[in-house]
Protein backbone atom coordinates (compact mmCIF):
# COMPACT_ATOMS: atom_id res chain seq x y z
CA UNK A 1 0.00 0.00 0.00
CA UNK A 2 1.33 3.43 -0.86
CA UNK A 3 2.04 6.14 1.70
CA UNK A 4 -0.97 8.06 0.47
CA UNK A 5 -3.18 5.05 0.99
CA UNK A 6 -1.78 4.48 4.45
CA UNK A 7 -2.55 8.07 5.38
CA UNK A 8 -6.02 7.86 3.91
CA UNK A 9 -6.96 4.83 5.99
CA UNK A 10 -4.98 5.64 9.13
CA UNK A 11 -7.10 4.94 12.20
CA UNK A 12 -5.02 7.05 14.53
CA UNK A 13 -5.13 10.49 13.02
CA UNK A 14 -8.30 10.31 10.93
CA UNK A 15 -11.10 9.18 13.26
CA UNK A 16 -13.79 9.28 10.60
CA UNK A 17 -11.89 7.10 8.15
CA UNK A 18 -12.04 3.35 7.94
CA UNK A 19 -9.53 0.64 7.18
CA UNK A 20 -10.35 -1.33 4.01
CA UNK A 21 -12.44 -4.37 4.95
CA UNK A 22 -10.11 -6.73 3.06
CA UNK A 23 -7.13 -5.52 5.11
CA UNK A 24 -8.97 -5.98 8.40
CA UNK A 25 -10.27 -9.40 7.40
CA UNK A 26 -6.84 -10.67 6.32
CA UNK A 27 -5.35 -9.46 9.59
CA UNK A 28 -8.08 -11.16 11.61
CA UNK A 29 -7.76 -14.47 9.76
CA UNK A 30 -3.98 -14.54 10.07
CA UNK A 31 -4.19 -13.72 13.79
CA UNK A 32 -6.78 -16.45 14.35
CA UNK A 33 -4.67 -19.08 12.60
CA UNK A 34 -1.47 -18.36 14.53
CA UNK A 35 -3.10 -18.00 17.94
CA UNK A 36 -4.99 -21.26 17.33
CA UNK A 37 -1.61 -22.97 16.99
CA UNK A 38 -0.40 -21.54 20.31
CA UNK A 39 -3.45 -22.69 22.24
CA UNK A 40 -3.57 -26.01 20.42
CA UNK A 41 -0.04 -26.66 21.67
CA UNK A 42 -0.67 -25.58 25.25
CA UNK A 43 -4.06 -27.31 25.20
CA UNK A 44 -2.65 -30.65 24.05
CA UNK A 45 -0.13 -30.61 26.87
CA UNK A 46 -2.83 -29.80 29.41
CA UNK A 47 -5.26 -32.42 28.11
CA UNK A 48 -2.58 -35.13 27.93
CA UNK A 49 -0.98 -34.22 31.28
CA UNK A 50 -2.57 -37.11 33.18
CA UNK A 51 -1.30 -39.55 30.51
CA UNK A 52 2.26 -38.29 29.99
CA UNK A 53 2.88 -37.54 33.68
CA UNK A 54 3.85 -41.12 34.64
CA UNK A 55 5.85 -41.52 31.40
CA UNK A 56 8.22 -38.66 32.19
CA UNK A 57 7.87 -38.59 35.99
CA UNK A 58 7.25 -42.16 37.17
CA UNK A 59 6.09 -42.28 40.79
CA UNK A 60 4.03 -44.49 43.07
CA UNK A 61 1.63 -41.59 43.65
CA UNK A 62 -0.37 -40.50 40.61
CA UNK A 63 -0.83 -37.02 42.09
CA UNK A 64 2.95 -36.63 42.39
CA UNK A 65 3.39 -37.44 38.69
CA UNK A 66 0.62 -35.04 37.73
CA UNK A 67 2.13 -32.28 39.87
CA UNK A 68 5.51 -32.79 38.20
CA UNK A 69 4.16 -32.60 34.69
CA UNK A 70 2.09 -29.53 35.60
CA UNK A 71 5.21 -27.90 37.04
CA UNK A 72 6.86 -28.34 33.64
CA UNK A 73 3.69 -26.95 32.07
CA UNK A 74 4.06 -23.87 34.27
CA UNK A 75 7.75 -23.50 33.40
CA UNK A 76 6.82 -22.52 29.85
CA UNK A 77 4.93 -19.55 31.26
CA UNK A 78 8.10 -18.38 33.02
CA UNK A 79 9.75 -17.94 29.63
CA UNK A 80 6.87 -15.96 28.17
CA UNK A 81 7.94 -12.55 29.56
CA UNK A 82 11.48 -13.12 28.26
CA UNK A 83 10.16 -13.99 24.82
CA UNK A 84 7.82 -11.01 25.03
CA UNK A 85 10.69 -8.64 25.83
CA UNK A 86 13.06 -9.94 23.16
CA UNK A 87 10.58 -10.48 20.34
CA UNK A 88 8.36 -7.57 21.38
CA UNK A 89 11.32 -5.22 21.01
CA UNK A 90 11.88 -6.51 17.49
CA UNK A 91 8.18 -6.11 16.76
CA UNK A 92 8.24 -2.49 17.93
CA UNK A 93 11.36 -1.72 15.92
CA UNK A 94 10.98 -3.54 12.58
CA UNK A 95 7.31 -4.52 12.54
CA UNK A 96 4.70 -7.02 13.70
CA UNK A 97 4.52 -9.23 10.61
CA UNK A 98 8.01 -10.75 10.75
CA UNK A 99 7.82 -11.54 14.44
CA UNK A 100 4.41 -13.17 14.11
CA UNK A 101 5.81 -15.46 11.43
CA UNK A 102 8.74 -16.44 13.68
CA UNK A 103 6.54 -17.12 16.70
CA UNK A 104 4.18 -19.52 14.95
CA UNK A 105 7.05 -21.52 13.41
CA UNK A 106 9.01 -21.63 16.65
CA UNK A 107 6.04 -22.85 18.68
CA UNK A 108 5.21 -25.51 16.13
CA UNK A 109 8.72 -26.95 16.06
CA UNK A 110 8.84 -27.08 19.86
CA UNK A 111 5.48 -28.84 20.10
CA UNK A 112 6.40 -31.44 17.49
CA UNK A 113 9.64 -32.02 19.40
CA UNK A 114 7.64 -33.06 22.49
CA UNK A 115 6.11 -35.83 20.40
CA UNK A 116 9.58 -37.17 19.56
CA UNK A 117 11.10 -37.14 23.05
CA UNK A 118 12.20 -40.36 24.80
CA UNK A 119 10.39 -41.25 28.02
CA UNK A 120 11.87 -42.03 31.43
CA UNK A 121 11.84 -45.80 30.90
CA UNK A 122 14.34 -45.44 28.03
CA UNK A 123 16.22 -42.22 28.82
CA UNK A 124 16.02 -41.98 32.60
CA UNK A 125 16.49 -38.52 34.04
CA UNK A 126 17.26 -37.08 30.59
CA UNK A 127 13.59 -37.50 29.62
CA UNK A 128 12.14 -34.91 32.03
CA UNK A 129 15.13 -32.62 31.43
CA UNK A 130 14.49 -32.73 27.67
CA UNK A 131 10.77 -32.12 28.22
CA UNK A 132 11.55 -29.10 30.37
CA UNK A 133 13.98 -27.70 27.77
CA UNK A 134 11.47 -28.03 24.93
CA UNK A 135 8.72 -26.43 27.00
CA UNK A 136 10.99 -23.48 27.80
CA UNK A 137 11.61 -22.94 24.09
CA UNK A 138 7.89 -23.14 23.41
CA UNK A 139 7.20 -20.62 26.15
CA UNK A 140 9.76 -18.21 24.72
CA UNK A 141 8.06 -18.04 21.33
CA UNK A 142 4.52 -18.02 22.74
CA UNK A 143 5.45 -14.96 24.80
CA UNK A 144 5.14 -12.81 21.69
CA UNK A 145 2.33 -14.64 19.90
CA UNK A 146 -1.10 -13.82 21.25
CA UNK A 147 -0.21 -10.27 22.30
CA UNK A 148 1.46 -9.57 18.96
CA UNK A 149 -1.53 -10.94 17.11
CA UNK A 150 -3.88 -8.80 19.20
CA UNK A 151 -1.77 -5.68 18.56
CA UNK A 152 -1.64 -6.39 14.83
CA UNK A 153 -5.40 -6.86 14.54
CA UNK A 154 -6.16 -3.72 16.57
CA UNK A 155 -3.82 -1.66 14.38
CA UNK A 156 -5.45 -3.05 11.23
CA UNK A 157 -9.09 -2.62 12.32
CA UNK A 158 -11.35 0.40 11.78
CA UNK A 159 -11.98 2.66 14.75
CA UNK A 160 -15.24 1.71 16.39
CA UNK A 161 -14.85 -1.96 15.35
CA UNK A 162 -11.72 -2.98 17.23
CA UNK A 163 -13.80 -5.14 19.55
CA UNK A 164 -15.42 -6.99 16.66
CA UNK A 165 -12.20 -7.56 14.71
CA UNK A 166 -10.19 -7.99 17.91
CA UNK A 167 -12.31 -10.99 18.82
CA UNK A 168 -10.46 -12.86 16.07
CA UNK A 169 -7.51 -13.39 18.42
CA UNK A 170 -9.53 -15.16 21.16
CA UNK A 171 -11.49 -17.03 18.50
CA UNK A 172 -8.09 -18.53 17.69
CA UNK A 173 -7.69 -19.34 21.38
CA UNK A 174 -10.99 -21.23 21.43
CA UNK A 175 -10.45 -22.96 18.09
CA UNK A 176 -6.99 -24.08 19.17
CA UNK A 177 -8.35 -25.45 22.44
CA UNK A 178 -11.22 -27.16 20.63
CA UNK A 179 -8.89 -28.72 18.09
CA UNK A 180 -6.58 -29.92 20.85
CA UNK A 181 -9.46 -31.58 22.67
CA UNK A 182 -10.79 -33.12 19.45
CA UNK A 183 -7.41 -34.58 18.46
CA UNK A 184 -6.88 -35.93 21.98
CA UNK A 185 -10.39 -37.40 21.93
CA UNK A 186 -9.86 -39.03 18.55
CA UNK A 187 -6.50 -40.41 19.64
CA UNK A 188 -7.78 -41.93 22.88
CA UNK A 189 -10.78 -43.40 21.05
CA UNK A 190 -8.64 -44.91 18.29
CA UNK A 191 -5.95 -46.74 20.27
CA UNK A 192 -6.15 -48.97 23.32
CA UNK A 193 -4.70 -47.99 26.68
CA UNK A 194 -1.42 -49.85 26.19
CA UNK A 195 -0.80 -48.30 22.77
CA UNK A 196 -1.81 -44.86 24.06
CA UNK A 197 0.87 -44.97 26.76
CA UNK A 198 3.40 -46.56 24.40
CA UNK A 199 3.21 -44.34 21.32
CA UNK A 200 -0.32 -42.97 20.86
CA UNK A 201 0.24 -39.98 23.14
CA UNK A 202 2.74 -38.63 20.58
CA UNK A 203 0.14 -38.17 17.84
CA UNK A 204 -1.48 -34.92 19.12
CA UNK A 205 1.93 -33.27 19.50
CA UNK A 206 3.11 -34.28 16.03
CA UNK A 207 -0.13 -32.95 14.53
CA UNK A 208 1.28 -29.47 15.16
CA UNK A 209 3.44 -29.79 12.02
CA UNK A 210 0.69 -29.52 9.35
CA UNK A 211 -1.10 -26.88 11.41
CA UNK A 212 2.00 -24.71 11.52
CA UNK A 213 2.51 -25.00 7.77
CA UNK A 214 -1.01 -23.67 7.18
CA UNK A 215 -0.64 -20.82 9.70
CA UNK A 216 2.79 -19.80 8.37
CA UNK A 217 1.41 -19.68 4.82
CA UNK A 218 -1.37 -17.35 5.94
CA UNK A 219 0.99 -15.05 7.80
CA UNK A 220 3.41 -14.76 4.90
CA UNK A 221 0.61 -13.15 2.89
CA UNK A 222 -0.22 -10.31 5.28
CA UNK A 223 1.14 -6.76 5.15
CA UNK A 224 2.49 -4.70 8.01
CA UNK A 225 -0.18 -2.96 10.10
CA UNK A 226 -1.16 0.50 8.87
CA UNK A 227 -0.77 2.09 12.29
CA UNK A 228 2.79 0.82 12.65
CA UNK A 229 3.66 2.03 9.14
CA UNK A 230 2.41 5.48 10.08
CA UNK A 231 4.58 5.53 13.21
CA UNK A 232 7.66 4.68 11.14
CA UNK A 233 6.83 7.45 8.69
CA UNK A 234 6.55 10.00 11.50
CA UNK A 235 9.63 9.09 13.57
CA UNK A 236 12.42 6.63 14.19
CA UNK A 237 11.40 3.44 16.02
CA UNK A 238 11.98 3.55 19.76
CA UNK A 239 15.44 2.20 20.66
CA UNK A 240 14.54 0.71 24.05
CA UNK A 241 10.78 -0.04 24.15
CA UNK A 242 10.88 -1.79 27.54
CA UNK A 243 12.69 1.13 29.14
CA UNK A 244 10.04 3.51 27.80
CA UNK A 245 7.23 1.27 29.01
CA UNK A 246 8.74 1.04 32.48
CA UNK A 247 9.34 4.78 32.63
CA UNK A 248 6.08 6.12 31.24
CA UNK A 249 3.42 3.38 31.23
CA UNK A 250 3.63 1.69 34.63
CA UNK A 251 -0.08 2.25 35.31
CA UNK A 252 -1.05 0.57 32.05
CA UNK A 253 1.30 -2.31 32.82
CA UNK A 254 -0.30 -2.91 36.21
CA UNK A 255 -3.83 -2.77 34.81
CA UNK A 256 -3.07 -5.23 32.01
CA UNK A 257 -1.22 -7.54 34.40
CA UNK A 258 -4.12 -7.75 36.86
CA UNK A 259 -6.89 -8.13 34.28
CA UNK A 260 -4.87 -10.71 32.33
CA UNK A 261 -4.36 -12.62 35.58
CA UNK A 262 -8.13 -12.97 35.83
CA UNK A 263 -8.47 -13.76 32.14
CA UNK A 264 -5.82 -16.49 32.22
CA UNK A 265 -7.19 -18.05 35.38
CA UNK A 266 -10.59 -18.17 33.70
CA UNK A 267 -9.20 -20.09 30.74
CA UNK A 268 -6.66 -22.39 32.38
CA UNK A 269 -8.61 -23.17 35.56
CA UNK A 270 -12.15 -22.63 34.32
CA UNK A 271 -11.61 -24.57 31.12
CA UNK A 272 -8.41 -26.61 30.62
CA UNK A 273 -8.04 -27.74 34.25
CA UNK A 274 -11.66 -28.86 34.24
CA UNK A 275 -10.70 -31.73 31.94
CA UNK A 276 -8.05 -32.86 34.46
CA UNK A 277 -10.60 -32.42 37.23
CA UNK A 278 -13.25 -34.56 35.55
CA UNK A 279 -10.85 -37.28 34.36
CA UNK A 280 -8.47 -37.57 37.31
CA UNK A 281 -10.68 -36.76 40.28
CA UNK A 282 -14.25 -37.44 39.15
CA UNK A 283 -13.27 -40.47 37.00
CA UNK A 284 -15.23 -39.56 33.89
CA UNK A 285 -14.26 -41.32 30.67
CA UNK A 286 -11.37 -39.35 29.16
CA UNK A 287 -12.55 -39.65 25.55
CA UNK A 288 -16.00 -38.36 26.45
CA UNK A 289 -14.47 -35.44 28.35
CA UNK A 290 -12.23 -34.52 25.41
CA UNK A 291 -15.17 -34.48 23.00
CA UNK A 292 -17.17 -32.40 25.48
CA UNK A 293 -14.38 -29.86 25.79
CA UNK A 294 -14.01 -29.66 22.01
CA UNK A 295 -17.71 -28.97 21.49
CA UNK A 296 -17.93 -26.41 24.29
CA UNK A 297 -14.81 -24.59 23.10
CA UNK A 298 -16.04 -24.34 19.52
CA UNK A 299 -19.43 -23.09 20.70
CA UNK A 300 -17.75 -20.43 22.81
CA UNK A 301 -15.70 -19.36 19.77
CA UNK A 302 -18.92 -18.67 17.88
CA UNK A 303 -20.07 -16.30 20.65
CA UNK A 304 -16.91 -14.21 20.77
CA UNK A 305 -17.60 -11.83 17.85
CA UNK A 306 -20.98 -11.01 19.41
CA UNK A 307 -19.39 -9.93 22.69
CA UNK A 308 -16.59 -8.11 20.90
CA UNK A 309 -19.11 -6.13 18.84
CA UNK A 310 -21.17 -5.40 21.98
CA UNK A 311 -18.06 -3.92 23.64
CA UNK A 312 -17.77 -1.54 20.67
CA UNK A 313 -21.29 -0.31 21.45
CA UNK A 314 -21.48 -0.19 25.25
CA UNK A 315 -17.81 -0.18 26.24
CA UNK A 316 -15.08 -2.63 27.21
CA UNK A 317 -15.41 -2.15 30.96
CA UNK A 318 -19.09 -3.06 31.16
CA UNK A 319 -18.73 -6.20 29.10
CA UNK A 320 -15.60 -7.36 30.94
CA UNK A 321 -17.38 -6.80 34.26
CA UNK A 322 -20.19 -9.09 33.11
CA UNK A 323 -17.67 -11.80 32.27
CA UNK A 324 -15.62 -11.69 35.47
CA UNK A 325 -18.71 -11.41 37.69
CA UNK A 326 -20.14 -14.48 35.94
CA UNK A 327 -16.97 -16.46 36.70
CA UNK A 328 -17.23 -15.52 40.37
CA UNK A 329 -20.88 -16.58 40.58
CA UNK A 330 -20.93 -19.71 38.40
CA UNK A 331 -17.78 -21.73 39.04
CA UNK A 332 -18.56 -23.13 42.51
CA UNK A 333 -22.13 -24.39 41.85
CA UNK A 334 -21.11 -25.79 38.46
CA UNK A 335 -18.19 -27.77 39.93
CA UNK A 336 -20.60 -29.14 42.52
CA UNK A 337 -22.93 -30.19 39.70
CA UNK A 338 -20.09 -32.01 37.94
CA UNK A 339 -19.54 -34.05 41.08
CA UNK A 340 -22.85 -35.91 40.63
CA UNK A 341 -21.04 -38.38 38.33
CA UNK A 342 -23.61 -37.97 35.61
CA UNK A 343 -22.23 -37.15 32.15
CA UNK A 344 -25.23 -35.10 30.89
CA UNK A 345 -25.12 -33.02 34.10
CA UNK A 346 -21.36 -32.64 33.77
CA UNK A 347 -21.79 -31.47 30.18
CA UNK A 348 -24.40 -28.91 31.24
CA UNK A 349 -22.18 -27.69 34.07
CA UNK A 350 -19.15 -27.37 31.79
CA UNK A 351 -21.16 -25.46 29.22
CA UNK A 352 -22.45 -23.00 31.82
CA UNK A 353 -19.10 -22.47 33.54
CA UNK A 354 -17.55 -21.76 30.14
CA UNK A 355 -20.04 -19.02 29.26
CA UNK A 356 -17.90 -16.21 30.76
CA UNK A 357 -14.91 -17.31 28.68
CA UNK A 358 -15.99 -15.77 25.34
CA UNK A 359 -16.86 -12.53 27.14
CA UNK A 360 -13.53 -12.10 28.90
CA UNK A 361 -11.41 -13.46 26.05
CA UNK A 362 -13.01 -11.47 23.24
CA UNK A 363 -12.95 -8.12 25.05
CA UNK A 364 -9.73 -8.51 27.02
CA UNK A 365 -7.32 -8.40 24.09
CA UNK A 366 -8.70 -5.23 22.46
CA UNK A 367 -8.66 -3.60 25.89
CA UNK A 368 -4.97 -4.40 26.36
CA UNK A 369 -4.03 -2.96 22.98
CA UNK A 370 -5.74 0.33 23.86
CA UNK A 371 -3.63 0.83 26.98
CA UNK A 372 -0.33 1.45 25.13
CA UNK A 373 0.75 3.72 22.25
CA UNK A 374 1.69 2.10 18.95
CA UNK A 375 5.42 2.78 19.29
CA UNK A 376 5.69 0.48 22.35
CA UNK A 377 2.44 -1.50 22.14
CA UNK A 378 3.97 -4.88 21.32
CA UNK A 379 6.49 -4.74 24.17
CA UNK A 380 4.07 -3.23 26.68
CA UNK A 381 1.38 -5.81 26.02
CA UNK A 382 3.72 -8.79 25.89
CA UNK A 383 5.53 -7.85 29.09
CA UNK A 384 2.39 -7.09 31.12
CA UNK A 385 0.11 -9.81 29.77
CA UNK A 386 2.69 -12.56 30.19
CA UNK A 387 3.26 -11.84 33.86
CA UNK A 388 -0.50 -12.16 34.28
CA UNK A 389 -0.31 -15.41 32.31
CA UNK A 390 2.36 -16.76 34.68
CA UNK A 391 0.16 -16.18 37.70
CA UNK A 392 -3.20 -17.02 36.13
CA UNK A 393 -2.17 -19.77 33.71
CA UNK A 394 1.19 -21.21 34.74
CA UNK A 395 0.69 -21.33 38.50
CA UNK A 396 -3.02 -21.92 39.02
CA UNK A 397 -3.32 -25.45 37.48
CA UNK A 398 -0.45 -26.58 39.71
CA UNK A 399 -1.95 -24.85 42.75
CA UNK A 400 -5.37 -26.34 42.03
CA UNK A 401 -3.92 -29.85 41.93
CA UNK A 402 -1.81 -29.25 45.04
CA UNK A 403 -4.76 -27.84 46.98
CA UNK A 404 -6.93 -30.83 46.17
CA UNK A 405 -4.10 -33.16 47.20
CA UNK A 406 -3.46 -31.38 50.51
CA UNK A 407 -7.02 -30.55 51.56
CA UNK A 408 -9.09 -33.22 49.85
CA UNK A 409 -11.55 -30.46 48.91
CA UNK A 410 -12.51 -30.89 45.27
CA UNK A 411 -13.81 -27.32 45.13
CA UNK A 412 -10.38 -25.80 45.87
CA UNK A 413 -9.77 -24.78 42.22
CA UNK A 414 -13.03 -22.82 42.24
CA UNK A 415 -11.79 -20.55 45.01
CA UNK A 416 -8.69 -19.73 42.97
CA UNK A 417 -10.83 -18.68 40.01
CA UNK A 418 -13.21 -16.65 42.18
CA UNK A 419 -10.27 -14.80 43.71
CA UNK A 420 -8.75 -14.02 40.32
CA UNK A 421 -12.11 -12.79 39.00
CA UNK A 422 -12.52 -10.46 41.97
CA UNK A 423 -9.03 -9.02 41.41
CA UNK A 424 -9.92 -8.30 37.77
CA UNK A 425 -13.24 -6.72 38.73
CA UNK A 426 -11.55 -4.35 41.18
CA UNK A 427 -8.96 -3.44 38.55
CA UNK A 428 -11.65 -2.58 35.99
CA UNK A 429 -12.78 0.26 38.22
CA UNK A 430 -9.52 2.07 37.46
CA UNK A 431 -9.48 1.51 33.69
CA UNK A 432 -10.56 4.38 31.45
CA UNK A 433 -13.07 3.45 28.75
CA UNK A 434 -11.25 3.21 25.41
CA UNK A 435 -13.73 1.58 23.02
CA UNK A 436 -14.31 4.69 20.92
CA UNK A 437 -10.91 6.30 21.18
CA UNK A 438 -8.23 6.47 18.49
CA UNK A 439 -5.10 4.39 18.97
CA UNK A 440 -2.31 6.70 20.12
Automatic annotation (TrEMBL):
Domain Major facilitator superfamily (MFS) profile: 27-438
SUPFAM superfamilies: MFS general substrate transporter
Primary site of residence: membrane
Protein name from the UniProt record: Proline/betaine transporter
Location in the cell: Cell membrane
Region (Disordered): 1-20
Domain of life per record: Bacteria
Record-stated family: Belongs to the major facilitator superfamily. Metabolite:H+ Symporter (MHS) family (TC 2.A.1.6) family.
Topology in membrane: Multi-pass membrane protein
InterPro entries from the UniProt entry: H+-coupled_symporters (IPR051084), MFS (IPR011701), MFS_dom (IPR020846), MFS_trans_sf (IPR036259), Sugar_transporter_CS (IPR005829)
TM region positions: 64-87, 99-119, 125-152, 164-189, 201-218, 265-282, 288-307, 319-339, 345-368, 380-404, 410-431
Organism phylogeny: Bacteria, Pseudomonadati, Pseudomonadota, Betaproteobacteria, Burkholderiales
Keywords: Cell membrane, Membrane, Symport, Transmembrane, Transmembrane helix, Transport
Amino acid sequence: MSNASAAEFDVETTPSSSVPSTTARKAAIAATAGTAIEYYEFGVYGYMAAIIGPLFFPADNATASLLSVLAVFGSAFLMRPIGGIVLGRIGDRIGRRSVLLVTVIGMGIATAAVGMLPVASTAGVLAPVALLAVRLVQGFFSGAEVTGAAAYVAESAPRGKRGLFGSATPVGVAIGGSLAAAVCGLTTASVNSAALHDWGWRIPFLMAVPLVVIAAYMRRRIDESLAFKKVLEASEPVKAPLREVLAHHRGAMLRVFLVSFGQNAGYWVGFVFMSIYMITYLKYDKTSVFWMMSFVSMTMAALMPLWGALSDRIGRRRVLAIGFASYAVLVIPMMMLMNHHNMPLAFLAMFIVALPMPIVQSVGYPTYTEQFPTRVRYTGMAFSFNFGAILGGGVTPYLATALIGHTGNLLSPAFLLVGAAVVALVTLAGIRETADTSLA
